[in-house]
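Hey team,

Filing this mostly as a record. A colleague (T.K.) asked me to run one chain through the structure pipeline before their review meeting, and I want the input and output archived in the tracker in case anyone asks later how it was produced. No errors, nothing strange. Just documentation.

Input sequence:
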Amino acid sequence: MATSYALAINNLVSKTAFVNAQDIIPSASFDIRYYTANNFVGRPIDAYKAPKCILHKDAVQALKKVNDELKKELKRLKVFDCYRPQTAVAHFMRWVDDTKDISTKAEYYPNLSKPLLKGEYIAEKSGHSRGYTVDLTIEYQTKDGQFTELDMGSPFDLFDEKSNTMSTLVTPKQTQNRLLLKNLMLKHGFSDYSMEWWHFTHTTDPRTTYWDFPIK
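Output structure:
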């Protein structure tokens, strides 16, 4: 009983370290895809009750430094996903196991059969659930003051070789844009995932608790 109580207290203390990135980095753009139907499942994802970017405060402070650098060049971060509840991950697994549902195949996995998404793309545990991982891109400001995404050669969540950071299927300029994002993120304490140019994890991630509180 004492051990269980201590674990509960430690978990409560750890959870208080999570913050809403929108509050800390208001100049960044946030397009939380899994709150909407604009994602590879084709419908809002379980446990995304609000379009918020929740992350551990260490990751958010590092992310702010990235965004501050971009602001000097009239650019900013655009964030697609942050902390992901384990309930949401389970929703992904139910979707990938439903081989009859291929309604989003043409847009998100045109060159793979659905079962092949398991493992490297969709798994039973996600680093996102620990609160230190973020999916994002860069936007630049146009002459009319609007922001638009840098051309990265493939869209967010395209499950394909083309999304590998150093894919030979994209142009040199698109690779340059990917490396701009990667190098800035690495400079401020993140590590990358070579299969997905948009995916980064802050290196302070203890790789322990997989959280399952809803985003609301």
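Quick notes for T.K.: Confidence is low (pLDDT under 50) at residues 1-10. The helical segments are 2-15, 21-24, 57-71, 86-97, 105-108, 172-187.
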